[in-house]
Specification:
The chain is α/β, with parallel strands linked by helices. Helices cover 31% and strands 23% of the residues. It is built from twelve helices and 18 strands. The longest helix has 17 residues, at 206-222. The protein binds (4S)-2,6-dioxohexahydropyrimidine-4-carboxylic acid and zinc ion. (4S)-2,6-dioxohexahydropyrimidine-4-carboxylic acid (DOR) binds next to loops. It catalyses: (S)-dihydroorotate + H2O = N-carbamoyl-L-aspartate + H(+). It comes from Bilophila wadsworthia (strain 3_1_6). Its cofactor is Zn(2+). One of its GO terms (molecular function) is dihydroorotase activity.
C-alpha cells in the first residue's frame, strides 16, 4: 500500500488536505493525520485541481513531427494540468484507419506510460476528404472515442447526415468543425472592420453559424448528439441556445483565445494571431464569456495546433492557422477568475467534469475511490512565455513574449507524480 498526503492546499477557497492511497482518492478534508508510511507534500499557497481534460488537440504524429510529437504534446499536456486529451485526425497519414490509432496509442504508452492519457478521435471521412465514411467501428475498437472531420469541414450535407447516424449507432459523438466551405473559401481572418483596413480577405462569422445550424437541425431530425467544436461567434452561441431550448442533444466547446482576444490582435499582419475559426470582435468575446458562464457552451478545449516558427514567419496569407495551447490554457483562463468572469468551480466544470460527462471519460471528483488525477497550481508564479518555458515543440501563440501569472507546479496521475 502506498500513500501520499497533500497538506494545506487551497480547494474552492478552503484549506484542505488530500490523502491518496494506491492511486485513488481516500479522503479530502480540512485536516488529515498522516498515515505512518505516507509521503507528505506541503502545498501551502497552491491551488488543488482535478486533472483537466482537453477534448480538442492536434498532436501532429504521424507525419508532422517537426511541429509536435505525441511525446512533446503530452509533455505540454502534463505541464498544463491535462490528465487526458483527445487528439484530432488530421495527421499524415490521416487517422482514418485503426493502424494509425494504434500507432498514436503506442507512442503515448512508450513516452508517458503513467499518463497523461491520449484518446484519439477518428476521421469521419477517408483522408478527411468529405467523400466516403470511414470504418468507424474499427476505429472505435482500436480506441477512438469520437469522430470528426476537424480542419476539413464537411460540405456535403448528405454525407454529414450519414456520419451522424453511423456514429450515433456506435455511441460515438461527432465533433463538428463548423465552417461553410464556400463562405469561408480563401479567407485568412474575421470579416469586419479590421480585415477591411488590413486588406485581408475575411471569413464572415455566419460561415460558422450556418454549419452549426445544419448540425443542430440534423441532430434534431435524427435524434442524435452532436458536439460543436471551437465556437467563436455570438451568432453561433445563439443558435446553440436555441437547439438546447428545443431539447436537441447539442454540446459545444470554446477555447481560451475566443474568451480573451479579438481580431485586432491580427493588426500588423501578426501571423501568431492567425487561427481558424478566426478571432472575432469584442462583442463575440463578451458573448463567449456569458455562454461559458451560463452553460450554453458546455466546456473549454484548447484546439492546440502547433506549427513551427518558420511556418509562421511568412506573409500573412501563407501562414498556417493555429495556436499551441496546452501550456497556456489554465494560466489564461485562471486570468478570467482574477477578472471575476469565472470562478474556480467554473474552471473545474468547464475543463474537467463536463468534458468527462460528454465524452464518457473518468474524472477525479475528489470523492473516495476517484482516480487520484490532480495537480497543484501556483497562482502567484510569474513567468514569461518563451520557447524555453513552453513544453510544446512549437511556440506559435499570440502570448509569445508576454509575462503571465500562475502555472502548474506539480501533477499526479493515478497517484504517480508525472511532473
Ligand atoms: O487553427 C486551426 N488549426 N484550425 C483548424 O481547423 C486546424 C488546426 C490545425 O490543424 O492546425
Ligand atoms: Zn482543431
Amino acid at each position: 500500500m502506498s500513500s501520499l498526503l497533500i497538506k494545506n492546499a487551497r480547494y474552492l477557497g478552503d484549506s484542505v488536505d488530500l490523502l491518496v492511497v494506491d492511486g485513488k482518492v481516500q479522503s479530502l478534508s480540512a485536516s488529515i493525520n498522516a498515515p505512518a508510511d505516507a509521503e507528505i507534500v506541503d502545498a501551502a499557497g497552491k491551488i488543488l485541481f482535478p486533472s483537466l481534460i482537453d477534448v480538442h488537440t492536434h498532436l501532429r504524429e504521424p507525419g508532422y513531427e517537426w511541429k509536435e510529437t505525441v511525446a512533446t504534446g503530452l509533455s505540454s499536456a502534463a505541464h498544463g494540468g491535462f490528465g487526458a486529451i483527445l487528439c484530432m485526425a488530421n495527421t499524415d497519414p490521416v487517422n482514418d484507419d485503426a493502424a494509425v490509432t494504434e500507432q498514436i496509442l503506442e507512442s503515448a504508452r512508450r513516452s508517458w506510460p503513467n499518463g497523461p492519457r491520449v484518446h484519439p478521435i477518428g476521421a469521419a471521412t477517408v483522408g478527411l476528404k468529405g467523400e466516403e465514411l470511414t470504418r468507424m467501428s474499427e476505429l472505435k475498437d482500436a480506441g477512438c472515442v469520437a469522430i470528426s472531420n476537424d480542419g476539413r469541414p464537411v460540405g456535403n450535407t448528405e454525407i454529414f447526415r450519414r456520419m451522424l447516424e453511423y456514429a450515433a449507432d456506435l455511441d460515438l459523438i461527432v465533433i463538428d468543425h463548423c465552417e461553410d466551405p464556400y463562405l469561408a473559401a480563401k479567407s485568412h481572418m474575421n470579416e469586419g472592420a479590421t480585415s477591411g483596413v488590413l486588406g485581408v480577405k475575411g471569413q464572415p462569422d455566419v460561415a460558422e453559424t450556418i454549419q452549426a445550424s445544419r448540425s443542430i437541425l440534423l441532430a434534431d431530425y435524427l435524434g442524435v448528439p452532436v458536439h460543436i467544436a471551437h465556437v467563436s461567434a455570438k451568432r453561433t452561441v445563439d443558435i446553440i441556445a436555441w437547439g438546447k431550448s428545443r431539447g436537441v442533444k447539442v454540446t459545444a466547446e470554446t477555447t481560451p483565445h475566443y474568451l480573451t482576444l479579438d481580431d485586432t490582435a491580427v493588426n500588423g499582419y501578426n501571423t501568431l494571431a492567425k487561427v481558424n475559426p478566426p478571432l472575432r470582435t469584442p462583442a463575440d468575446v463578451a458573448a463567449m464569456r456569458e455562454a461559458v458562464k451560463t452553460g450554453v457552451i458546455d466546456m473549454l478545449a484548447t484546439d492546440h495546433a502547433p506549427h513551427a516558427a518558420h511556418e509562421k514567419e511568412t506573409p500573412f496569407d501563407e501562414a498556417p492557422n493555429g495556436f499551441t495551447g496546452m501550456d497556456l490554457a489554465l494560466t489564461i483562463t485562471y486570468g478570467l477568475v482574477r477578472e471575476g468572469v469565472l470562478t474556480e468551480a467554473d474552471l473545474i466544470r468547464l475543463w474537467a467534469t463536463e468534458p468527462a460527462r460528454v465524452f464518457n471519460l473518468p474524472v477525479n471528483t475528489f470523492e473516495p475511490g476517484a482516480p487520484a488525477d490532480f495537480f497543484l497550481f501556483d497562482p502567484e508564479l510569474e513567468w514569461q512565455v518563451t520557447p524555453e518555458t513552453l513544453y510544446s515543440k512549437s511556440h506559435n501563440t499570440p502570448w509569445l513574449g508576454k509575462s503571465l501569472k500562475g502555472r502548474v507546479s506539480a501533477h499526479w496521475i493515478g497517484g504517480v507524480k508525472i511532473v
